[in-house]
Amino acid sequence: MNEGPGSAPAGEPAVRKARITRMTFAAQELRLISALVVILGLGLFLALPFVLSIGSVVFLPLVTALILTIVLSPLADKLAGWGLPNVLASLVALLALFAILVLAGLLILQPAIVLFDTLPAVIDQIGQRFAELRNQFAWLAAANDRLAELTGRSGNEVVVATPSFLEEFAYATPSVVLEVLLTFLMTFFMVEARVRLRRRLLLERTDFGASIKAARVIRDVQDRVAAYILTVTWINALVGLVVGLAAWAFGMDAPVMWGGLAAILNFLPYIGPLAMTAILALYGVGTAETALVGIIPAAAYLGLHTVESNVFTPSILGARFTMNPVMILLALSYFSWIWGVFGALLSVPILLTLTAFFDHVGRPNLIGFVFGEPLFPLSPAGEADDPAPAEQQTARPA
Question: Which residues span the membrane (predicted)?
Answer without folding.
Answer: 32-52, 58-76, 88-109, 169-191, 225-250, 256-283, 290-307, 327-358
